[in-house]
Fold each of these.
Amino acid sequence: MCFTQNFWSLLISGLADGFLYALIALGYTLVYGVLQLINFAHSEVFMSGGFAGYFVLQATLGSHTTSGWGSVGYVALGIAAGAAGGGVVAFLLERVAYRPLRRRKAPRLAFLISAIGASYFLYNIAGKEFGHNALEIPAPFTNLPWFSIFGAPVQAYYVVIAIAAISMLLLVDRVVSSTKLGKGIRAVAQDAETASLMGVNINRIISQTFVLGGLLGGAAGFLFGLNAGVVYTMGFTPALKAFTAAVLGGIGNVRGAMLGGLVLGIAENLPMGCVQTAWRDVIAYGILAIVLLFRPTGILGERLGRAA
Amino acid sequence: MSDPLELTEIPERTVTSAALPPDQRTPWHKVVHNDDVRRLFACVIGGFVLALMTGPEGDGINMLSGVDGALRFPHLGICLALTVGLWVLITVRHRFGERARTASARVSALPARLLPNAKFRGLALVALLALAIVYPAHLNGYWQSVLVQQVGIYVLLAIGLNVVVGYAGLLDLGYIAFFAIGAYSDAFWTGALPIHPPANLNPFWVIPIAIATAMLAGVILGVPTLRLRGDYLAIVTLGFGEIIQIVAINLQGVTGGAIGTGTIRHFALHVLGINYVWGLDPLPYYYLLLVFVVLALFAFHSLEHSRIGRAWAAIREDEIAAEASGINVLKYKVMAFAIGASTSGFAGTLVASQIRFFEPGDFTVQLSILILVLVIFGGMGSLPGAVVGAAVLEWLPQYLHVHPLFGFQQQDLYIYFGAILILMMIFRPEGLIPSRRRRIELGLAEHGIGTADAMTAGASPSEPAGLP
Amino acid sequence: MSLLQLVDLEVRYGAIPALRGVNLSVETGEIVTLLGANGAGKTTTLRTISGLQHPASGRVLFEGRAIGDVAPHDVLALGVGHVPEGRRIFPQMSVLENLEMGAYRRRGNLREDVEHVFSLFPVLGQRRRQEGGTLSGGEQQMLAIGRALMSHPRLLLLDEPSMGLAPLVVKAIFEIIARIRSQGTTILLVEQNATQALQLADRGYVLENGEIVMSGAATDLLGDPRIRAAYLGETAAH
Amino acid sequence: MTSAAPLADGLPATSPEADLLVEVEKLTLRFGGLTSLSQVSLTQRRGEILSVIGPNGAGKTSLFNCLTGVYTPQEGRIVFHRRDGRDISVVGVRPHRVNRFGIARTFQTSRLFNALTTFENVKIGVESRSRTGPLGAILHLPHTRREERAANARVRELLEFVGLTHRAATLASSLPYGDRRRLEIARALGTGPELLLLDEPAAGTNPAEKGDLVDLIRRVNRDRGVSVLLIEHDMGLVMSLAERIVVLNFGQVIATGSPAEIQQNPAVIEAYLGAPEAPAEGAGDVAESGEGA
Amino acid sequence: TAATHHAATKTYTIAYEGPLSGGNQQLGLNMAYSVQLAIQQANAGKTFGKLPFKLAYKAADDQGSATQSPTTAQSLIGDKSVIAVVGPAFSGATKAAEPLYHAAHLATVSPSATLPALADSGWNNFFRVVADDDAQGPADALYAAKKLHVKSVFAVDDASAYAVGLVDAFAKRAKQLGIKVTHQEAPGTTQCQAGNGNVQQYGALATDIVSSKANAVFYGGYYCDFALLAKAVRAAGFTGYLMSDDGSLDPHYVAQAGAAIADGTYLSCACTNLGNTPAAKAFSTGFRKLAGFPVGTYSAEAYDATNTVIAVLKKLGARATRPAVVAGLHKVIYTGLTKVVHFQPDGNIAGSSVYEYQVKGGKIVELGMVSKLVK
Ligand SMILES: Nc1ncnc2c1ncn2[C@@H]1O[C@H](COP(=O)(O)OP(=O)(O)OP(=O)(O)O)[C@@H](O)[C@H]1O
Ligand SMILES: Nc1ncnc2c1ncn2[C@@H]1O[C@H](COP(=O)(O)OP(=O)(O)OP(=O)(O)O)[C@@H](O)[C@H]1O
Ligand SMILES: [Mg+2]
Ligand SMILES: [Mg+2]
C-alpha cells in the first residue's frame, strides 16, 4: 500500500537523483578503471563545479536570470562553467596528488591517503576563501510544479537534470566505447604496461580520464548547486552516494555507473512512502551490502573494458 | 649520429636533458622537463597556495575577497620567498650536496642502527614508560585532558586499527562504529539510556562487557563482509559506520536519539576493600588508559610475531596462495577485525565514562578516516608508528593553537592537515616509523612486485596486471 | 649502422643488477636470438629496449639515436614493436580491438593490415569478435604477435613466444616468425627453446647472470658443445 | 631420457579399488557460456604420479582449481580417499579446508609471499597445522613454544629436502626462478599433503633445472609417499615421470593411459602432440601437422 | 603617568567556546565575531563608557562536539585570566563541559544551548540568554492552532539535539490543542551544517508531506535546510503554511529559498527584532566589518550574552573573581538588543516571550508577541 501511494512522484524524484548520482559516479568509475583507485577527492571536484558555475554566472549575469530560450542558455553556460571548473580541479588533482605517487609506484593505500588529504585540503580551503554559508545560484525557473505525469507534479529542475544528464551520459558512453581516447582508456584500464607498448601515453590518458570524470563531476556540481546552493561541504554526501552507485553498478564499468546511479536513486526514493526520511541512507547502504554479498562485482560487473 | 632534434616530432617525449649528451641543447619549450625548473615551477605554485592557506578568511559576500587579500604584496612576497628559498636549498643539495646527503642519511640511520640492539631497546622502553608515568602528573589540567581525550584515546584507537589495516590489510572505514558500540554499552549498563539494563553493574565491570560487545559486533559484521574485496570492504564498512550513527539518532527510545545519553557514571572499583572512583580529574583516567595501551601494545606485538601475524602477512600479500597453504583466510580476517573492534569499543567506553555524556554526532565518518590517517602517518603495520603518529598528529595542532608564536586559526587546521597528508604520501609514504615488513613490501612494489597492500586481494587468479 | 645497438648496458632493479655491461647489435633484416637461463636478464633486455625499463648506465641506440630514456610509447613510434612475455592480451577487448590497439599511434585505414594479420593467423579471423581473454594460450600468442605487427615495426621484439604452449602450437608459431622476417621485419627473439630458436636465427647471443657470455652465428652456436650442454639439455635429464 | 618405463615399482599391486586416492566423476565447470570442463572423469591411485596434459585452454588448470576448492563445479563429484579411511567430497569446500584434508598445490605462475623470507614462506605452510590461538600467541604459553620449536625443525627439514637451506633468510622476491619453484613445493609439502598438485612446474626452466626438478618430484613421491598430479607441457618431463597420463582437450578427456599408450594414441597426436616421434628430444621437437589449439 | 596607569589596569578575558571548525563552523563564527565585537566596543568605551579594566577575547574551538568540549573547557579553566565564558554553543557540548566549569566556579552564558534539561542539573554557573525548547515549541503550536487554525501539521526535525527537543515540545502542545501531528526526522544535510543527511531527501519528504494532506509544515532546524525543504514542498505542490523556529530566522533563508517561495513563511523566536536603534545599527555594521559577513543566527544573542557579562564586570570593577561573576549574573538586569536579560535561579532567561515573524515581500517582518497575537 505504502509503496504505491506516491509511486509516480517518488519515481520521478528517484530518477532525478539517479541522474545526478550517475554523473558523479562516472568520475569514480573512469578513474577507478584506469588506476584501480577510489578517487576520494572526487567530492571536491564536484564542489569545484558548483563554485565555478556560481562564479561564472555571477561574473557574467550578476543576479539577473533569464527566461525562455535565454534560460536554456543560462543553464548551459552554468553547466559549461561547472564542467570546466571540475575538469581543471581534476587535472590539478591528478598532477599534484597522484602523479608523483604513481612515479614511485606507491601502493594503493598511499593514493587513498593522498586523496583524502586532497579532499580535506580542497574543501577546507574553499570554505576559507568562499565563506561557510551556502551561496545561492539564482535559478531561471521557479520551484513550482511545471506539469504532471500520472498526477505527480514535475518541476522544471528535474527536467533540466534529466536532459543534461542523459545527453552527457550518452556522450561519454560514445567517447569511451568508440573513440581513440576511449580505446586508450580501456587499454590502460586492462593492462597499462602493454598499452604503453602499443604507443599509448599512459600519463596523458590518465590525465584525460581525470579531466573527463572532472567535467562530468563539475557539471553535476553545478546542477546540484542550482537547487541547493553551493557550499564547501556540498560534495560529501552526494559523492558518497555516487560512489555507492558506482560500486552497485560495477565499478570501473561506464554503463554500470549509469545503471547504478539510477537504481540507487530509485531505490532510495520508492520506499519513502513507507519509512521515515531518516532511514533513507540505511536503505541505500543496506542495498549496497546485499548486492555486494550476492554479486560481488556489482550489477553489471567490473572493469572499464566491458564498457564497449 | 643524426640530429637529436628530429626526435621532437614525437609528441610528449619524456627525454630528460640529463640523458642527452652534453653538447645537445634542449629547445626552450622543453625546458620545463628539466627537473630543477620543474621543481621551481612547483615551488612557485606552492608559494601561491601557501599564501592562500595563510591569508585572510574570505567572506562569501564579495566574491574572492579572501583570494584577493591573500595575494597582496607583502604576504604573497613572504610566501614566495619561503618556497623559492626552499627550492634553492633543494637545488643546492641536489647539485653539490653529496656530503650533506650522506651526513643526513647517517643521522637518519642512527635509530635504525640502535634499535636492533635489544639491550638499548629495552632500556629505551623502560625510560619511555617511566616518562609516561611521571611526566603527566606535572602537566596542567588542560594538557592532562589533551593527553587523555586527544592523545591517549587516539593512540589506543590507532594501535587497534593498525591490527586491522596494518596487519591484516583490511581497509576499515567504519572503525568508529565500534567506538560508538562501546560507548553505548557503557551508557546502557550504567543506566544512562532510556532503556534500562537487566542488572545494575558496578561501573568497572562494564569494561569487559563493552569490549565483548564490540568484539561480537565486529564478528557479526565481519563474517559476511570480510569475504569482500578490499575496496568493497572499505565502502561497506563506511556504510556500516553511517548506519550505526543513523540508528543511534533514530532509535530515540533506545539510545536517547540526537539529544544524547543521560549522565553516565564514572568508572568505580569496589572489590577487595578497594574503593576507588574515577572522577572529573583526567589524570586517573590517563593511568587507566596507559595500562590498557601498554597491555594492548604487548599483546599486538606478540601477535605480530606469532603464527597469527605471519598468517596475516600472507593474507595481505596473496590471499589465494594463503588459502592454498591451508590458512583459513576468513577466520584470520575476522580475528583481526574483532581485535580492532574490541580495542575501539574499549576506547568508546573510556570516553563515555570520563565525559559522562555523548551524542550520536560524535561518531562521524570523518573520525574513522582521521584514525586511518593517524595509522598511515605513523607507519602502517608498525606499533611504534601508530603510537607516535597518533600522538604527534593529535598533539601538534593543540600545541600550535595554544602556542603564542603560532596561534594559528583552529579553523584552518584541516587545510594544513590535508596538505601534510599529500606531502607525506609523496615524500615518505611508508610513514614516520615504518615497519620492516612494510618497508620491504613498499620497496618491492616500487619495483613492480606485489601491490604492498591487500586491496586487490580476492581477485581472480587470472586477474591481469594493473599499472606497471 | 646497426638497426639496434646496446652499448655497455647496465640495468638495476633497486640495488640488484639485472644486466651488467651488455653489448649487442641487430642488423636490418636479421633474426637474432637471445638465449639464457631463467633470470639471466633476457626479458630485462627487451624491456629496456622498448623503454619500460631505463638503463642505469650505457646506451640503447636505435638507428643511431639514444633511446635509453625515451618513454615506451615514443619508442614504439620510432618503429620498435614488442610482444611481451606472457602475451598480455587486453582480456576484455575483442580480437579486432586488440589489433586496433596495435595501430594506436597510426591514422588511416587499418583494414588492409588487419586482413594481413588474419592471413597470417586464419584462426584469429574466425574469432574477430571474441574477447581476448577467452582465447586459448596459443591463440593469444598469435594475437599478441599480430597486434605488434599492426604498428609496422621495423624491429620486432619477441619474448618467449613458445612459453607454455603445446608442442603443436610452438611449431606453428616458429613458422610464422620465419614468414614475418621474410616480409622484411627484423626480429630479436628471446627463447628458452634454444634448439628451435637457433635453427631459425641468423645469429645468437647467450646471456648468463646479466652478461653476454657467448655470441656468434646461429649454426656455430648450435654446434658448440658448451651450448649443447647447458641449453640444449644434452646431459640434463639422466 | 630413456624410454618412459612406468614406475610402478615399490607399490603393492593390490586391487585398484582398494588404493584409490582421488575419484573425479563427470565434472562439469562452466563460466557463463563457456564450458571449461565437461563430464571429466578420472581416478588416481595412491602413490601414483599422474599427469594431465592437453592443449592450452583445455581445462587443466580449471581441473586443479576444482580439486582444490577454488572453483565449484556445476556438476560432478570429487571424492578424496584419505589414508585414515575417511572419504571426503571436495566439491563446494573452501580451499583451506581442502588443503587440510591433504591436497596441496603449486600455481602455474608462482605465488610466493614475496615480502617474507624463504623460511617464513615454508613456515606459513607448516604452521597452518598448528593449534595456537590468539591467547596462546599473546601469552607465550608453553605449548605455543613447543609448537613453534617443532614447526621450525620441520621447516629446516623441508628446506634441506628441496635444497634451499642456504637461502633460508633470503626474501622470496629475490630468489632465482628455479628456487622459487622449489620453494613453492616446499611450502606445499609443509602442509603435510597426501596429494600434491603441480601446475606446470617446469614452465620456463632450462633443461638442467628440469633435470633437478624431475629428481625432486620423484623424491617427493618415493621418499615421502606423496601422490603427485602433474600438469606439464614438457613431454620429456611428463614421459619420464608419469605412470599414467590423462589427456584433456576442450574440457573433455580424450585419452587415458600409460605414456607409451598415449604417445601412440591417434586422438592425442591429432589434438596435441603432432606426428609421433621419439620422445628423446626436448619439448617441441615433435609434430609436423596442423593448426593451433 | 598614562603608561603606569595603563600597566596597572587589570585585564579580564572573556572567552568564547563553540565550534570554529568542523561542519558547524558557520554557526560558531556567527557567535564568535559577536563576542569579539562586544569586547572591542567595550574596550573602546562605546558601549559601557570608560571601564576600569581592559577586556581580552579568547576563542576556544570545541567543534560543537561533546567529546571535544571538556578538553576545551579545561583550556579555559586553566587560563586564570578567563573570568567568564560565552558558550558553550551547543547543548551536547554544554552537557559535557558544564561539570568542569561548575567545579571551577566559572560562569558560562550560552547564546544558543536550548536543551531544557541543561537547567535542571544544579549547575549554578550555567546561564543562557535564549529561551529553552519548552518555551518556544508550545508557543509555535499555540500560534498554529489559534491564529492559523491549522488542523493537521507535518512536523519535521533535523535530528539535531536542538530541533528534536523543540519539535517534541511543539508536537505535544499541538496535540493538546487538537491538531493532528505527523512527525518525521530528516537529518540536517552536509549542505548546511554537520548533518549527515542528503539534499535529495527533501524531494521524497515533500511527496510525503503533500500526501499527508497537512495544511502546515513545522520545521525544527536551521535556515539552510529549511530553505531546501520549502523549495521542495512548494515544488511538490504544497500550498499550506510553512513555519519554523529561530534557527531559521535568518535573511539567508529568504535568499536561499527565493522570495517567491519564502513569502508567507512564519518564523518564531524568543527574541524581538533588532530594530533600528543606534545600538542595533552599531552592532550590525560593526559585525559586518569585523566578520566580513552579515549578522546571522545567534549573532545577536552572543552579543547580548557578552554584554551581560561585561555589565556584571563593570559593576564588580577591579574586584571581579570567577565566583563573583557567577553571583553577579544571578542578579543582573541588562537591556540587550534582543531582550532584557534577567536570569531565573536555574540559569534560564526570565520572562522570555516568544515573538512571531513572517516573510513579507522578501523581508522578515516581526508580527508581535505570540501571547498577544493569539488573544
Ligand atoms: N621487477 C623486478 N624487480 C626486481 N628484480 C627483478 C625484476 N624483474 C626481474 N628481476 C630480476 O632480474 C633478473 C633478470 O630477470 P629477467 O626477467 O630479465 O630474466 P629472463 O632472462 O627474462 O628470465 P625468464 O626466462 O624467467 O623470463 C632476475 O634475477 C630477476 O629476478
Ligand atoms: N575464471 C575464469 N573465468 C572465465 N573463464 C575461465 C576462467 N578460468 C578459466 N577459464 C577458461 O576455461 C578454459 C580452460 O582454462 P584453463 O586455465 O583450465 O586451461 P589450461 O588447460 O590450464 O591451459 P594452459 O595450458 O594455457 O594453462 C579457458 O578457455 C579459460 O579461458
Ligand atoms: Mg623472461
Ligand atoms: Mg593452465
Amino acid sequence: MRQTGPYNEKVMDHFRNPRNAGELENPSGIGTAGNPVCGDIMEISIRIEDEVIKDIRFRTFGCGAAIATSSMVTELVKNKTIDEALAVSNRAVAEALGGLPPVKMHCSVLAEEALRSAIDDFRRRQGKP
Amino acid sequence: MRQTGPYNEKVMDHFRNPRNAGELENPSGIGTAGNPVCGDIMEISIRIEDEVIKDIRFRTFGCGAAIATSSMVTELVKNKTIDEALAVSNRAVAEALGGLPPVKMHCSVLAEEALRSAIDDFRRRQGKP
Amino acid sequence: MNMKPIYLDHAATTPTAPEVVQAMLPYLEGTYGNASSLHSFGREAKTAVETARGRIASFMNARPEEIVFTSGGTESDNFIIKGIALSRKDRGNHIITSSIEHHAVLETCGFLRKQGFSVSFLPVDSNGLVNPDDVKKAITNKTILITVMHGNNEIGTIEPVAEIGSIAREHGVAFHTDAVQTFGHVPIDVDELKVDCLSASAHKLHGPKGVGLAYIRTGTKITPLLHGGDQEKRRRASTLNVPGIVGFGRAVDLAGTEMHAESSRQSALRDRLMEGLLAEINDTRINGHPIRRLPNNANLSFAFVEGEGLLLSLDMEGIAVSTGSACTSSSLEPSHVLSAIGVPVELAHGSLRFTLGRDTTREDIERVLRVMPGIVHRLRAMSPLARKGAIS
Amino acid sequence: MNMKPIYLDHAATTPTAPEVVQAMLPYLEGTYGNASSLHSFGREAKTAVETARGRIASFMNARPEEIVFTSGGTESDNFIIKGIALSRKDRGNHIITSSIEHHAVLETCGFLRKQGFSVSFLPVDSNGLVNPDDVKKAITNKTILITVMHGNNEIGTIEPVAEIGSIAREHGVAFHTDAVQTFGHVPIDVDELKVDCLSASAHKLHGPKGVGLAYIRTGTKITPLLHGGDQEKRRRASTLNVPGIVGFGRAVDLAGTEMHAESSRQSALRDRLMEGLLAEINDTRINGHPIRRLPNNANLSFAFVEGEGLLLSLDMEGIAVSTGSACTSSSLEPSHVLSAIGVPVELAHGSLRFTLGRDTTREDIERVLRVMPGIVHRLRAMSPLARKGAIS
Ligand SMILES: Cc1ncc(COP(=O)(O)O)c(C=O)c1O
Ligand SMILES: Cc1ncc(COP(=O)(O)O)c(C=O)c1O
C-alpha cells in the first residue's frame, strides 16, 4: 500500500474522515483503554440489540494511528454479533488498515481493548460475567 | 609572501632553479648533514681563498625545502669570509627564503650544519682545530 | 491542496540558502582536491577551507586554529564531551549538565555514566532556565566538565551561559555549550560567553547538512573522537568535507549580514503567531521563557488533543511543524524538556513547535492562524478528554 | 604552463561525478527536509535516503537495515572498531589487525590499546599480503575482533579477506574490513567476503566528501560512536546528510554500471605507466602485489631522490600525484606500509603513488611518461646519494 507519510493512504483516510466518531446517548456499554500519560486514550460506546452491535461510536485522544484504528474497529464490528466482534483481533484491525508502522502497533491493541471493555460493561450492566 | 603551495614563491624559485647545485672539483672542504633514513641529506663543498668562500656547491637528497635551503645558504655565504659565513644562522636562511612551514624548519638547520661541517673540514685539512 | 507549502520547522533543519549552494558548487564540480594533498588540487581545496575557517572564527571571536570542523552538532557534542572527559579523567569523573539538553548531550552523558563517570542533571525553572547557583552548588572537587546548552531546541529558552562560564572559570572546570540552535541566530562571542568549547551545526543556519564545528579554546586538552590521519591538527581525522565547509562559511557570512534584521523580523512574526493562537484557541499555553528565547521559536500546548494529530492535520494543509525535536518525533514518550519545565504530561502530548526562518512571510503566519483553530476544534471534538464546555 | 591538468591522485579523493552533483542538487535546493521529521518535507527526504540505502545495500549484497550512513571512512573505522570492542569487552580484550592498515584503523587500535585493549599488528610479505595462517595463530581466547583491510591505499595490494573471514567465523570472532579503497572499484559481496562489518567512503568512488557507510551484519552488537537522536536505528545519531547520501547512492549506481569496464581500462593504462617508467628510468622498483592489486594503483620507488621533490616537479607540470597516503603527506617519516613490505628507508623516501580514475586518458599517461625521466634525472643530478654511474 502506498505510503504518503508515516502512514499509508488507508490510515490517512480514516484519520481524515473518521467513521463513527462521537458518543452514543444512552449506550448499552462504554469502555476505555489507555491513559493520557502514555499519550493515547480511547473510549468506545456501543448500543446492543439481540447480541448485535447496532451502533457504535468512539472518542480518541492520541496520534494519527490511534484515531484511525478507533475508526476502523468501529467499522469492523458494526452490525456484528458480540461473539463475532470479540473475534476481531488487534492484528485484524491493523491489517484492515493495510498495516501500521511497528511503533504504532500498540494503537491497534488499544482499539481491541476499548471494544472488549465496552462489551464487558454491557455484560456487567446485564448482570452477566 | 604569496603561498602557491606548501611553499612560498621564493622557496619554489630556489627549488626550481637551484643556485650552485653540484660538487666542486678539489674543494677546500666538504661537509654533510642529515642522513637518508630521515629523508634529508645535504653535502656542501667549498673553495676557500684568504679565508673567503670563493666558490661553493651543494648536493641534496630531500624535500623541496631541503633543496631550497641548500640553494639559499650557498648564495648567502658565497664571497663571505668564514667568520661571516659562520654567523649565518638557520633562521637567517629561512628568513631569506621568506619563511618556511614550521614542519620544515629542520631543513634550515641541516643547511647550517652542512656548511659548518664543510668549514670544519677545511680547518682540519689546514691542521687547525 | 495546491497552496504554497509553509515550512515552520527551521529548528529541525533549514533550507540551504541559494547563496550557499552557489558557493559550494565549484567545490563539487571543479575544485575537488583533498585538502591534505600537496599538489595544486589539494592546495586550492585547502585555501578554500582555511578561508571559511577564518571567517567563521572571526564571526564568533575565536582564532582560526580553535575551530575543528566536524560532521554536525551531534559529532561536536560527542567529541567535546567525551574528549574532555577522557583527557581529564585523572583529575575527576564528575560532569554537570542540565535536564533539558539535546539528546546528543544527554545520551553522551548517559554513555559516560556507564563508563564510570558520574553526571548531575540540573533542574530548570518553569521557563526552562538553569539557575547558575545550582551549577555552583553542584561543583565538587571531582568536577571536570560543565555542559549547558545556549538555546533550547524545543522551547527556545536561552540559558545564562556567561554566568555559568564565570563560575566554571572560578572553579577551573572546563565549560562547553551546545550552540546548535543559536549559532547564526543570536550574536555569539566565545570570550563574552566564557566558554572553553562550543558546538554548532551548519544546517541550522541555512548551511549544508553533514557539517558542523567544535570550538576548542587554545590550551584545552581534548582526546579525539575520530582517530586517523593528521587533519585538523590531529583533533579530527578524515578527509575534509571541502564543499560542506565552504557552504558553512558562506552561511556564516549570510548570518553575519542578516542576523540582526532577521532576528527582529522573525520575532515579530513569531509574537504575532503566539498571540493569535492564544487569542483564538482556548486552553492553550506557551512554553519557554517569555523574553529570553530564540527569535524564531514558538512552542505551545493545546489541551485535550495529541500533537501528532495536529501535525498531520497541518501537514494536510501544507504546513510543516514539529511535535518535539525532530529526532524524537517518532518516540512515544512526551518531551523531556516539557516535563522538566513542569508541563503536565497530557498537555505535553498536545504540544507543537513552530520555528520560523529567513523564508517565512507574514502571509504564512496569517494562514496558520486561519487554519489552526479549526484543526484543534475538530480533534477536540473527537477527544474523550475535552469536557464539552471546554471545547473552544 | 597551460597544459590540461592531469589528476593521478584518485586514491586521495576522486572528482565528484557530474551525475552525482546533478542527483544531489534537488536535495540541496528544494527538498531540504530533515529525514526524521513527520511532515511531507521530512518524508520526501526520508524516501530519498531509503532509496539510496536500498541501492547501496543491493550493490554489496547486504540488507538495507545493515547499512549505517556515516561522515566517511574514518568515522566508519572508528565506529566499528571501538563499537565492537566496547560491546564485547566482557568477552575479551584482544584485537588483531595488520601493520599496513590506514591510519584510521591503526590510530584507533592505538587508542584502544591505551584504554586497556591489547592489539596484535600482523606483518605482511614483500608484496603486502597478510598471511591467513598468521591470523589463525594470533587468535587467543581473548580475541574479540579482527580488522584487516580489503585494498591497501598506498600499494594497492588486495588482501585475502574471504580466507580471513572463514577463520574469524570458525573462531566466533567479529571480522571487519576497511574497504574504502575497493568499494566501487572491485566487486564486493559481504557474504562472499565473510565480513561482519565493512567501511566505505563515498568520495573515493566519485561521490561527495563527508559521507560514508558502516555495514553491520544483522545480529552484530555494536556500541554507537555518536550518541544522540534516534537516527539510523540508534546506531548513529545526527541529522542525516540527505544530499550526501543521495550522491553516494548515485555514485554507487555509476560504479555498478561502469566498474567492470573501468577496471580493465584503468588497469591497462596503469600497466602501461608502470612498464614505461621501469623501462625509462633506472633504479626504479614497483611496490605492491604484481597481480592482486587495485586496478588503478601504481606505486614506484625511484632510488636516490626524495618523493616530495618529485611531487612538486610533477605539480609544476600540472600533474597531481602523491608521495604517501594524502593524510600523511606532510609527515617526515617514511610510509609505514613501505617499511612493512621491506622497502629500504632511503628508497621509501623516493616513492610516488599514481592512482588513476574514470577521467584518466591514455594521453595523460603518455604525458607522464614523457616528463618523468627528465624530472628524476634532474633531481638525481642534485643528489649526493646518486653515484655518477647510477644516474640514468
Ligand atoms: C541543540 C541541538 N544540539 C544538537 C543537535 C544535533 O545536531 P545535528 O543533527 O546536526 O547532529 C541539534 C539538532 O538536531 C540541536 O538542536
Ligand atoms: C583505506 C582507507 N581507510 C580509511 C580512509 C579514510 O577515509 P575518509 O578520509 O573518508 O575518512 C581512507 C582514505 O583516506 C583510506 O584510503
